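#struct-help
A.M.: can someone run this one for me? Single chain, 440 residues.
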Amino acid sequence: MRRATLFLGTVLALTAAGAASSQPPAAQRSAGMRLEKIVTVSRHGVRSPTKAPEDLARSSDKPWPQWPVAPGILTEHGERDVRLMGQWLRTDYARRGLWPASGCLPTGAVYSWGDAKDQRTRVSGQAMLDGAFPGCSLKAAFGPEGHTDPIFSAASAGACPMDADEARKAILERAGGDLNRLGPGYQAALAALQAIMRPGALPPADSNGLRAGGEDGLRLNGPLSDGSTLSENLFLEYAQGLPMDQVGWGQVGSEAGLAKVMPLHDRFSDLTRVDPYIARHNGALVMRAVLTALEGKPALPGQGGAGTAWTAIAGHDTQLANLSGILGVDWTLAGQPDRTPPDATLVFELWRKPDGGRVVKLALVYQTLDQLRGETRLDAAHPAGRVELAVPDCGGAGGECALAAFETLIASRLPPSCVAGAPARGGRPRAEGAEAPTKP
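D.P.: on it. Structure tokens below:
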């Protein structure tokens, strides 16, 4: 298992022209509370499949659609969708009293850190800022391009190594003891996907297995892993807005058709990313960064402290799944068959109560599948989806969790060695668009 060193180069704090407006009116506050800041963790926008066309060709006897970009790259359509999400967050959190509805904020009030490893995360981080604060010259920050950043992959970067035997035990236990008895939902999704693919394209349903390999020392192989990738590719064809006769070669038809195969993607993620043992190791540093930012301390390279109203972290669906596993929260999304779709944003809100106490609230904000496909402008008539979340064992009225209790909860769930003196960002580069190993 390799060990990465954290990138400690200087990153300039984000700046904006203009000045903030006055204190928001009391009518915009929640039950007498005042919203102080938010920290967001978002998945990148719509990308092309990460596998090369010649690799995909083995799974179908029909040619795969042509994408306008290389494998694993954010498309222009995807970038526009991210801007729309940024625009919505600006509008929605102005309504909640965090900032004015227009204009730029003071220097350092907004800070974005993205995963440097991939173009799709770097560009998505910038697109989010451009959508939220157009014309304000904000610049998203990230480490050396193409290098692994442990914030986004603590285990594989060596900052929070997992024990392969413990990871194997955790996955098998979460699967009910047998990776090849995953229930009728798995069988139905696999059959639906196989009907779209070339006959025999997927391994036999009972050939799932764990073997040594990958950056974390363990890899899940078989029909669940292959089905997760292929079903996500069909989803991305739809979200990208490809003609319907090219989405699954005309055999998907609608959101309902995708909903038949996407359980493979969600089940794979549940076993290899949401599982608490895996989530607490691989997601340790991103969870710690979220908490540190909520506390008003510098959480990321080059970031200021208490004056940051919005800390935006631009990552992957892996981070959303890891945080779900650490916090013990789950969600289903109306109008969206993917549990962690492109642009999905987990929002941590810090509110101050009239007595001075501070509480944390969580929500998952997302675009429906058809909003992604249609590049729908999000407004009061066409709002983004929002699911309010309550953290188990840390919930008060309305899903509130006292900041002190939230700090205690996180401290109890993260491996201590992974958040104290952990190495910082850096690591070996990876070719742009290259397929990352399947990681538990």
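A.M.: thanks! The beta strands are 34-43, 110-114, 141-142, 209-211, 219-221, 310-315, 345-352, 358-366, 385-389, 401-402.
D.P.: also worth noting: The radius of gyration is 21 Å.
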